[in-house]
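dumping this here so i dont lose it again. seq + smiles for nicotinamide-adenine-dinucleotide
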Amino acid sequence: MGRVEGKVALITGAARGQGRSHAVRLAEEGADIIAVDACVDVATNGYPLATPDDLAETAHRVEKTGRRVIARQADVRDAAALRELVAGAVSELGGLHIVVANAGIAPLGPGPVQAFADVVDINLGGTVNTVHAALPYLEAGASVIATGSVAAFLPNTTDTNAGGPGGAGYGLAKRMVAQYINDLAVQLAPQSIRANAVHPANCNTDMLQSDPMYRMFRPDLDQPTREDAEPAFHAMQAMPIPYVEPLDVSNAVLFLASDESRYVTGLQLRVDAGAVVKVQPWKQ
Ligand SMILES: NC(=O)c1ccc[n+]([C@@H]2O[C@H](COP(=O)([O-])OP(=O)(O)OC[C@H]3O[C@@H](n4cnc5c(N)ncnc54)[C@H](O)[C@@H]3O)[C@@H](O)[C@H]2O)c1
């Protein structure tokens, strides 16, 4: 038996990065997958987002595990499109038990205030839209998981002068995702449905390996490269690593998705190699 055998999981931002990794890891443990990604760029976001080919590759990797997959392009800002997509996929796959609201952008750096609006719309609004599209289908035992960030706990991670309007919006969105999940957990508990958040530190995906992120970590250079940024990435974590890997986050998602965590709810689970404990004193 797999750890999520027979369950159906909806995952946004599933074309690449952490979302793809979650899709494959959950499928390896027996879940069928609804993989959603917009696969279009956002003008204020200074690095390319996923492509339709990326989403097809995720579907291919899920199929290789022997599980079923429905892969669809949809923008998490479009609540109506999500509702329609989820309704169709649930009737095809026969239920919905796991929601992983993971899609996100990081439009860091100097830019228009539109960057603030875009990141709040996607990282916060998209999370809410995803969960609310799924809610009508969730029953006792279901698990909602949202992707936050250590930026929710550490002011001055992205919401700095260098982060610009998009960095401010990123920090705000992640703090609000954390609070939304906290309050949602209270509402869902009487129905035995759980809600938790995972909060990665630096994670080795295209979001981190991007020019705007290199500039955040090496503000002393005009055009920093990956090689320039890599040593600076270490500053975030307490453990001696530049970043966690998507699989590290997927294993936390898998635990929260499975019945092993059946009484774990309202948890803010950091997968951060000590990034937060390093700088934040213990508080009750
Ligand atoms: N990479 C990091 O260092 C890091 C750290 C903390 C938190 N996070 C969070 O992890 C999550 C996953 O990011 P990632 O690191 O895998 O980066 P990524 O850029 O590889 O993946 C993000 C995915 O979301 C998709 N997406 C973006 N906007 C969308 C929209 N409007 N509708 C649907 N899909 C959309 C993209 O196409 C992409 O496939 C994000 O919420 C991000 O904020 C990342």
